[in-house]
Specification:
This protein is of the alpha/beta class. It is built from 15 helices and 19 strands. The relative contact order is 0.12. It binds fe (iii) ion and zinc ion.
């Protein structure tokens, strides 16, 4: 967008406010991001129409060389819409109701303010210990650490949080803590190998025998998932993407256009269109825009240096998607919300820019789409996993995601790459298992099933940045996963 249009935005806004009783600001903005200005009377007409987004799309289509949209243009577009075969038989109200029913928000982040006092952290970690401890219930018969002294010579289990891990070559010492005390657990052999993969701060169960004030470890148990996970069949498609990074110079626009063309069933490949026809949901797992000041010297790589404008462009691109697809967006570390996880959804000033079929969620968010339970988490903690566990790599991000499920926590390590906001309840615990765990962040692509849960890390729409070059991260961009329960398609839209 050029500066001229921006200046006119303010002018138009003040004009709109004189149109009594009707707020046309959003309509004006929606025209502006498409490069049009609109007269107050025309904007008023658009607002009064039952489906403003549909009307705006039609007006823009017929007004290609125009600068200002007037009442005649609106009338012409209305006539066209009347003539056109009705794609949507349901009214806007019906549609809204239907959507609310179709998408159930099981869990989302509220905008609660946390101060981060010592008490907050104590409450937060207690919640983590308690919630994950519950997952072990029925499986592990455990005692509290303070009661260990009474049980001599027998095999015993404790559930606790990993405070520290000391690698002593022959053995590994795990410092384990519960609400009643701390104990050193000495692991050797196979158990030492497991202990070496502990990140710290995860909740585990340790079984062993007491020796002096320490415990000799026989077994380390992760909360993990039951093995009999069933794959739920669905009769619609869900498209998983992330890290669009709108506003970045590296945004791969041509590939994005190919993607939208396909999603709208307008690609040249009939086979691919057939897949697109069945798509009902598109989920974007964070880093919607590139943001500002996220890493050193980022401004050199930005095509749009204003965050508001970045969201305007994001909204414009998402508006190109056919309206019977419900789009769910969740933020990432590049988005304009607090960095600490869990992250609330985008504030209204940005989310209002998006068309009505876009649902604005927090990070993480747990949703149910016609019975399919999807856990969306941007995936910042994957950096910690890949750094700390040598067998993991960015090349196979879904393997790192398995570790999150095993630990039943989206961000096990506190004090790593991802800051945590210490809310009273630890919302990053995976207490209920999803059918799908969807992440992004690492800009590579990987899918797999882990004990019945579909794992997808959904690529990016940004070419390699200078920063990524420095840290040797090779993105796998423009790859899209289309999920049908028993079938998953991977479509590459180029740009790699
Ligand atoms: Fe990203
Ligand atoms: Zn990210």
């Amino acid at each position: 967008m050029n500066l001229k249009a921006l200046e006119l935005l303010d002018m138009n806004e003040s004009l709109q406010k004189t149109v009594k009783g009707i707020d046309t600001t959003m309509v004006v903005k929606k025209f502006l991001v498409r490069g049009f200005n609109v007269s107050p009377e025309a904007a008023k007409m658009v607002v009064s129409f039952s489906d403003p987004d549909l009307l705006i799309a039609e007006i823009c289509k017929i007004s290609k060389n125009k600068f200002i949209i007037c009442e005649e243009d609106v009338l012409m577009a209305l006539k066209n819409l009347e003539k056109a075969p009705k794609k949507r038989e349901v009214t806007k109200e019906d549609k809204k109701e239907e959507k609310i029913e179709r998408v159930k928000i099981l869990k989302d982040v509220n905008n609660s303010f946390v101060q981060g006092t010592i008490e907050d952290f104590v409450a937060y970690f207690n919640s983590r210990l308690e919630k994950i401890g519950r997952i072990f219930r029925g499986r592990v018969h455990s005692v509290k650490i303070k009661d260990l002294g009474r049980i001599r010579g027998e095999n015993v289990s404790v559930i606790g949080m990993v405070n520290n891990v000391f690698d002593k070559k022959e053995s590994v010492v795990i410092e384990l803590e519960d609400q009643t005390g701390t104990i050193n657990c000495i692991a050797s052999g196979k158990c030492a190998e497991v202990a070496r993969e502990l990140l710290g701060d995860e909740v585990i169960a340790v079984t062993g025998t007491l020796k002096g004030s320490s415990m000799i470890v026989d077994r380390i148990v992760f909360p993990d998932c039951p093995t009999n996970g069933e794959i739920k069949p669905i009769d619609f498609g869900v498209v998983f993407i992330s890290d669009t990074h709108f506003g970045s110079k590296g945004f791969l626009e041509d590939s994005w256009k190919n993607f939208i063309e396909w999603l709208n069933c307008e690609s040249e490949n009939a086979e691919l269109n057939k897949i697109a026809e069945k798509v009902k949901y598109l989920i974007v797992a964070g880093d919607i825009v590139d943001g500002v000041g996220v890493y050193p010297d980022q401004e050199k790589e930005l095509a749009i240096i204003d965050v508001y404008e970045q969201y305007e462009v994001a909204a414009m691109h998402l508006d190109d998607i056919r309206k019977d697809i419900t789009v769910l967006i969740s933020p990432g570390n590049h988005d304009a919300v607090r960095q600490a996880e869990p992250q609330p959804c985008l504030p209204k000033e940005f989310s209002n820019l998006f068309p009505s079929n876009v649902k604005n969620l927090g990070n993480p968010a747990f949703v149910e789409l016609e019975g399919l339970r999807v856990l969306i988490y941007h995936g910042r903690s994957l950096d910690d996993l890949v750094t700390k566990i040598p067998r993991l790599s960015y090349e196979y991000p879904h393997k790192a995601m398995e570790e999150l499920l095993k630990r039943r926590h989206l961000c096990p390590l506190y004090g790593g790459r991802s800051p945590i906001a210490p809310s009273k309840e630890d919302l990053l615990v995976i207490d209920e298992l999803p059918d799908v765990l969807h992440s992004g962040h690492v800009h590579t692509y990987g899918t797999g099933f882990y004990r019945g849960v579909f794992l997808v890390n959904s690529s990016t729409w940004q070419a390699q940045t200078e920063f990524q070059k420095k840290i040797n991260l090779n993105p796998i961009p423009c790859n899209v996963a289309v999920y049908f329960g028993d079938k998953v398609y991977r479509i590459n839209f180029g740009g790699g």
